[in-house]
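Hey L., structure's done. Input below.
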Amino acid sequence: MEEAGLFEIGAAPGRDRAASPTAEAFHQPSTDAPLAVRMRPRTLAELVGQEHLLAPGAPLHQLVAGRSPLSVILWGPPGSGKTTIAHLVAASDDRRFVAMSALSAGVKDVRSVIAEARTRRRAGGSATVLFIDEVHRFSKTQQDSLLAAVEDRTITLLAATTENPYFSIIAPLLSRCVLLTLRPLETGAVRDLLQRACVDPRGLGGLVRLAPEAADHLVRLAGGDVRKALTALEAAAASAEARNAEVIDLAMIEQAVDVAALRYDRAGDDHYDVVSAFIKSMRGSDVDAALHWLARMLAAGEDARFIARRLVIFASEDVGLADSTSLGVATAAATAVQHVGLPEAQLNLAHAVIHLTVAPKSNAVVAAIGAALADVRAGRGGPVPLPLRDAHFAGAGHIGHGDGYRYPHDDPRGVLTQRYAPEDVIGREYYTPSRHGGERAVAERLPKLRRIVRGAAEPHPAASGQQDAAGGPRSDPVTGRNEERHR
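Output:
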C-alpha cells in the first residue's frame, strides 16, 4: 500500500513498498543506514531503559506478542524508543501492519485503512495494526475518524507522540487506548547502548573504542535521547577513521558535534516544562536556576517577547507590592526587547530576572483580584452608591447623582469617611498585604485607612474569604486550587 505516507507489511507480493519517511523506517536497514537505525533493538529483550513497562504480562509485552488487541498510545521524548516498539510490533508475522505519518496522511487515508481492515476481518483474515507516528499532529476530525474502528477493534491502534496526550489527543480516543509513558533514558542506559554500538557487528564492529571522558560527554550531550547519542558517535567514528585512530577521544567528540542541540521544542511539552521551571525558580528566589532556564530558552531560540511577557506577569503575580519597582523593571525589559532586540536584549532580560528573583515575594495581588472576581461571579454587588455616580451631565442633580459626595483632598489627611462599596460587599476585604519587603509598610498603613474610610465605629469584618479559621493555606480565589500546589 502506497498512499500519503502509508506503508504496509503483509501486502500482496510484487506491490511496491511506500517511499515515505515512515515507510522507509520500516524497511530492513541497509549496511549504510544511520548507526541509530542499524542498532535498533530486534527483540523486546534488547529494549533498554523502559523497565517500568517490561514486566511480564504488561501491556507492552502483550502488544508486541500480539496476545491482546489492545490499542496503545506511546508517549515519550525523542529517542526514548517509540518507533523501536513499532518495529517490534511490525516484526510479528500474525498481523497486518500499516504505518502512517500524521504529517502527510489525512482522513481519507485513515478511512481507507479502516475499510480494508474491516473487509479482511469479515473474511477471516489477519488483524490489522495501524501505527500512526506524530499522532498529535492529527486534527480533531482526523482523530474522530479513528474512534469507531478502535472501539470495535476493527484495527489495533498504535500511536506515538512526543506531546502530552491529555492536551493533544481528544478524550474519546484517549479513553479507548492504553497510555504507555516512555521515560528519557538514564545515563547508564545511554552509556551501555554506546558501548554496544562500538562492538556490535551491526554498529562499529569493534573498529574503534570510546574513551571514558568521550563517553561521558556523549551521555551528557544526549540528555536521555539515545538517537542523538548514536548520531554523534557515528560522526566521531568517521573522524577517527579518517585519522586512522583506534580510540575516539573527547576532542573528536567535541569536533564532531560542535554545539549541543538543546531539548526544547517551542511548540511542545518541553516548552511548557522549561517555562514552568523558570517561573518556579524565580518564585523560589533561586537566581542561579532562574538564569539557567533563561539561558536555555534563549539558546534554543525562544521568542524574547514571550519571555518578557512572563516577566511582566510575574512582577505583579509573585512580587507585587513587596517590591513595587519590579513591575517597572519588568516592563522596561519588555520595552528593551522591542527596541533593542536580541542578542543584546538578553542582558535586559537577565537584569529583570535577577531583580525579580531576589526581590521579596508576595502573591497578595493575585489573591486580592481573585477574591473580588469571586464575589462578582457569585452575584454579590449592587448599584453604584448615589454619591459616587457620574454628575457631569445636565439633570444629574435632579436624580441624585453625586449628592453627598465628599472630596478626600478637602481633608488634611487626604482620606475621609465615605461609603465606596456597593451594599452587598460592604466590609469585604480583598487585599491582605504580606509582611515582606515594601508591603510591610502597606500592611501597617492599610488598617488605618480602612478605619477612617469606614468610620471608627464600624466593626472589622471577619470574612475576607482568603484564609481558613485555622490559618491554613489559602486557596487560589481564581481557580479554587490550593496555593501549596504551586509552591
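The radius of gyration is 31 Å. The longest strand covers residues 95-101.

-- N.
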